Amino acid sequence: MTEQFRQNVTQGAALASLLTAFFILPPANAAQSDPVRAEGVDIRLVASAPEADGKIPAMLDIRLAPGWKTYWIDPGSSGLPPQITVSGPGLRFDGVRFPAPKAFEEGSARSVGYADGVTLPLVLSHEAGAMPARVTAQVMIGVCKDICVPVQASLSADLSGPAAANPLDKARIALAEESLPGPPQPDLTVTSARVKDAKLVLELTAPAGEPPQIFLSSSKGASFGTPKIVPAGPGRFRAETTLRLPRAAAAPAEAGITAVLVSGRRAVEMPLVFE
C-alpha cells in the first residue's frame, strides 16, 4: 500500500471502519455469488459450468458508483493493487486477466485503474477426473472517491446447479474476455526495450497522430515512474520512465515486466524482451 493511500485511509477512518469490514455472505445457489456491497462498489463472482476442455469460465464483476474508481494490477503512486485468490476442490487457478486501464492525474500523483466498473476474467480449469461443485474467491481491492478504502470480500458460486449453465452469464464472461488486450500487432507493439542510466527506454510502433499510452507491471515487484512518450519518426514513438528493480531481480530481464500499449480503442499486451 502506498503512503498516500495510507494517508487517505487515515483521513477517512470513521467511514473506513464501516466499509472495510470483512463481508462474508451466504453463497447463492447459482452461477453468481451473492453480491458484496460497500459504499461506492458492488462485487460479485460469476461462473459458468466447466467446458469439455476443462476450462471453467469465470469473472469478477466490480461495479462502481459514479465518481468512484478502483485500481489496476500496478496502481501507480496512490493506489492499492487488487489481491485475488480463487480456490475449490479440484480447481486450478492460474491468475486474473485485466483489461486495459486508464491513468488518473491527482495533483502530483498518478494512479492507474478503472472509473466505470470493470470485469476481470479468472483463468480457471479443473483437474482431470474432477468436477468441482463450487468456486470461492477471496478479494481485496482499493476504491476511492473523496477518501480511499480497502474493501474485502469472500465470494462463492455454485457450479453444480442448473443456473451454472445460464447462457447469459456465459455470454457476459465471453464479453469480458473479448475486452482484454490482444497480442501485439505490426502497427502497435514494443519493438525494443533497454535500460540506460537507470531509465527504461522503449521503442514503440503505433499509428501516427496522438502518442499511445503505455502501462507497465512487474510480476517480481519492480516499480516505474510515469512514462514520457515522444514521437521518434512516422508511426514510431519512444517511451522513457524510471525503473527500480526489486532484490529478487538482478537484471531487468528477470523482473517479469509486461507492457500494455493503448492507441485509441485498441490495446495490446506483451512481455518485454530486453536487448
Automatic annotation (TrEMBL):
Residues 1-30 form the signal peptide. Residues 52-156 form the Thiol:disulfide interchange protein DsbD N-terminal domain. Keywords: Signal. InterPro entries: DsbDN. This is Thiol:disulfide interchange protein DsbD N-terminal domain-containing protein. It comes from Xaviernesmea rhizosphaerae.
